[in-house]
Design a protein that fits this description.
- The chain is mostly helical.
- The chain contains five helices and two strands.
- The chain has a two-stranded antiparallel ribbon.
- Helix 2 (44-55) crosses helix 5 (96-106).
- The longest helix is centred in the N-terminal third of the chain and has 13 residues, at 13-25.
Length: 112
């Protein structure tokens, strides 16, 4: 695969869904734009490593391809989630490791 050196703000889709419900149930007027994310830039490599750990894969992950030019053009992204914490009172609750573990199990491949 391509380079895993970039940093991105990964958030579990269940946390995103919970943020929408939280906002919809908030009686106060909310800002027009509220960023939803984990609030933390993590190496893209963490996704590969997390899936390797969840799957108990014994091989290696090779970074030898050119990767996406679009992704390579942005080395670091992180959401400012402070409005989400203030306005509707939302915070992410699912860690990257837990989300990847749950994703792997949901494929059915993680069933013993």
């Amino acid at each position: 695969m391509g380079s895993l050196a970039g940093h991105r703000d990964f958030v579990d889709v269940r946390d995103i869904a919970r943020s929408v419900v939280t906002a919809a149930r908030t009686p106060a007027r909310l800002p027009r734009i509220i960023n939803i994310g984990s609030g933390r830039a993590r190496p893209v490599r963490a996704i590969a490593e997390g899936l390797v750990a969840a799957s108990r894969y014994g091989g290696t992950v090779a970074e030898n391809g050119p990767g996406s030019a679009r992704s390579a053009g942005v080395a670091w992204q992180q959401a400012d989630i402070s409005r989400a914490g203030r306005a509707p009172g939302w915070q992410p609750g699912i860690t990257l490791a837990q989300g990847l573990h749950d994703l792997w199990r949901a494929t059915g491949a993680g069933q013993d």
